[in-house]
Amino acid sequence: MPDAPQTRTRTGGCACGQLTFQARGEPKRVGLCHCMTCRKISGSAFNAFVIFATDQVTISGDMKGWSATPESERCYCPVCGSQVFDRDAADEIEIKLGAFDEPNLFAPTYEAWTKRRESWLHTPDLTAYPENARKD
């Protein structure tokens, strides 16, 4: 009898290694956000993220949080300041693509708040939402 397939585990964390995570299985979705909050907290033109169910992710280490809205908490390392993930008030966790230990694990399929997207950024293969994306 063949062995059961193993659930893939992906790891990552902050720049100094104090705050880490393990994400098991496949994500719910992968996207980009161009909203002003994401732009300002990332210091970039957009935020790239992958969303997992909270029960698929294990977090280790100390963290601090900040909330722009009651629905989510943006969590970062208190030592190095790296933003690692956002905790949703519901049942999701949004992990920054750059926080994973390996590159090229995920590719975005959609983008939110495109009405705030930089004019030089062209993403014709992504589903575009002028404001918030709907949850699938």
Which labels suit this protein?
mainly beta, 11 strands, glutathione-dependent formaldehyde- activating enzyme (gfa), 136 residues
Structure notes:
This protein has one domain: glutathione-dependent formaldehyde- activating enzyme (gfa) (Alpha-Beta Complex). The longest helix is centred in the first third of the chain and has 7 residues, at 36-42. It is globular. It is 5% helix and 39% strand. β7 and β8 form a beta hairpin. The mean pLDDT is 92. The protein contains 1 helix and 11 strands. It is mainly beta and 136 residues long.
CATH superfamily membership: glutathione-dependent formaldehyde- activating enzyme (gfa)
- Mean of residue pLDDT? 92
Q: Strand sequence of the main sheet, in spatial order?
A: 6-7-8-9-4-3-10-11
Element pattern in H and E: EEEHEEEEEEEE
Number of separate strands: 11
Structural class: mainly beta
Tally of alpha and pi helices: 1
**Rg result:** 15 Å
* Structural shape: globular
Strand content: 35-45%
* CATH fold description: glutathione-dependent formaldehyde- activating enzyme (gfa)
CATH class: Alpha Beta
Major beta sheet summary: 8 strands, mixed
Distance between the termini: 36 Å
Q: Which CATH architecture would you pick?
A: Alpha-Beta Complex
